[in-house]
């Protein structure tokens, strides 16, 4: 979710409000795909519409006209400004010109209108127009006033976007600092991971927490949305799960012991209510016992972990409860499995399975399981690198739409503690 969108909507709303009552000013807002998301009454009247049909594109109602063209003497039209995606076009994100003068013709009446096109940085924009040849000075004054107000709002948008970029860069640095810098004693487990951030800072996190010799608490979570809010909630969750956290441990001082996974999720559910933070997150929390090769886990709406065993198919671990934030997690809902030497436990987020190809199809869990099977003979770290290459190639060169997290553990056999 883009953080600049509320500011863009505020700018558009200010212009809509300014023009809504104007009898001779038409205003229409266009999405990057050329669909119309808003049009004032004047535009609908000139387009001879009562209501705006859903999915209506601007090209079906308006056509660009050439300078000097008249209704009786049409000329070859220039390309529509709302379809210009070139890097050289003016943009609200740049310090130069923020609008283009255009001449347009309504297809319903063939009448010509002078207008100005105000493009959005991400595509689409606002079209503001008046009737060609109309000499009403009041309308000219109104056009000038609207243009001046839009210019002021554009400059404010540029300033706020610069501040937002600084905030997002700082949040991205913080997110990287939350990744494991060193692993605790995992007993008989090996660990490897890959994290591929998307263009927008997100709310993905994984941690490996020390719980004592040969034991570790492992969490992987995904806060809804992107941007500063998601990143800051991720920081708060990481702090809540810090060393000696009362969410992760229980018992009196001197007799501290790890809390059960279901209890940890229930405590987080109470600590981060939707009513306070206005968002939620999915999560898996599990306890690895590197001496016995056991995994005890609880899940809150997160993608199911997978287990790859030698010579067998990949299996999905059972159980998933409700997401964190709505006070509905049952602390008793958890499961325990035992791993054999050579088994691999893989945790991941939806950035892996929801990677799209050129046809919009997800890589999905079958893509991941096929990759796990194909890389089973490789060492754990090399296997994850090969899986990352596969999911990256599946996107056919497109940037990642979400953070990608892969976290894997291989059980090498029970480690006996020396007496």
TrEMBL record:
Any one GO MF annotation of this record: phosphatase activity
Organism domain of life: Bacteria
Signal peptide annotation: none
Entry-linked InterPro entries: Bact_Sigma-Reg (IPR052016), PPM-type-like_dom_sf (IPR036457), PPM-type_phosphatase-like_dom (IPR001932)
Name of the protein described by the UniProt record: Serine phosphatase RsbU, regulator of sigma subunit
Region (Disordered): 65-94
Organism: Candidatus Ozemobacter sibiricus
Keyword Magnesium annotated: no
Database matches in SMART domains: PP2C_SIG
Record field: compositional bias (Pro residues): 73-82
Annotated keywords: Hydrolase
Segments forming domain PPM-type phosphatase: 186-411
Pfam families attached to this UniProt entry: SpoIIE
């Amino acid at each position: 979710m883009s953080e600049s969108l509320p500011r863009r909507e505020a700018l558009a709303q200010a212009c809509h409000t300014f023009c809504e009552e104007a009898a001779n000013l038409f205003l229409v807002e266009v999405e990057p795909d050329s669909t119309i998301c808003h049009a004032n009454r004047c535009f609908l009247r000139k387009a001879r519409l009562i209501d705006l049909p859903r999915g209506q594109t601007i090209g079906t109602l308006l056509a660009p006209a050439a300078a000097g063209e008249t209704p009786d003497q049409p000329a070859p039209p220039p390309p529509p400004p709302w379809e210009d995606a070139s890097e050289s076009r003016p943009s609200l994100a740049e310090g130069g010109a923020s609008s283009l003068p255009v001449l347009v013709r309504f297809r319903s009446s063939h009448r010509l209108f002078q207008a100005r096109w105000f493009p959005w940085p991400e595509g689409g924009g606002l079209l503001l127009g008046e009737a060609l040849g109309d000499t009403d000075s009041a309308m000219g004054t109104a056009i000038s006033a609207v243009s001046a107000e839009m210019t002021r709002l554009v400059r404010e948008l540029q300033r706020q976007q610069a501040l937002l970029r600084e905030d997002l860069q700082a949040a991205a640095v913080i997110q990287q600092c939350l990744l494991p810098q060193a692993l605790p004693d995992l007993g008989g487990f090996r660990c490897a991971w890959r994290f591929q951030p998307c263009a927008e800072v997100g709310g993905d996190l994984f941690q490996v927490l020390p719980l004592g010799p040969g034991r570790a608490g492992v969490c992987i979570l995904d806060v809804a949305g992107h941007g500063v809010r998601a990143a800051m909630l991720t920081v708060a969750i990481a702090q809540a799960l810090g060393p000696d956290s009362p969410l992760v441990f229980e018992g009196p001082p001197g007799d501290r012991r790890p809390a059960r996974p279901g209890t940890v999720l229930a405590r987080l559910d109470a600590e981060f209510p939707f009513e306070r933070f206005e968002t939620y997150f999915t999560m898996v929390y599990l306890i690895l016992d590197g001496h016995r090769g056991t995994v005890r886990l609880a899940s809150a709406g997160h993608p199911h972990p997978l287990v790859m065993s030698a010579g067998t198919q990949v299996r999905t671990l059972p159980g998933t409860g409700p997401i964190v934030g709505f006070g509905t997690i049952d602390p008793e809902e958890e499961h325990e499995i035992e791993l054999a030497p050579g088994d691999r436990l893989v945790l991941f987020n939806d950035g892996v399975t929801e990677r799209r190809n050129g046809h919009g199809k997800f890589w999905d869990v079958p893509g991941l399981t096929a990759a796990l099977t194909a890389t089973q003979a490789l060492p754990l770290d090399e296997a994850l690198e090969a899986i990352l290459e596969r999911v990256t190639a599946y996107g056919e060169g497109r940037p990642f739409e979400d953070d990608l997290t892969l976290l894997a553990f291989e059980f090498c056999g029970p480690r006996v503690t020396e007496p």
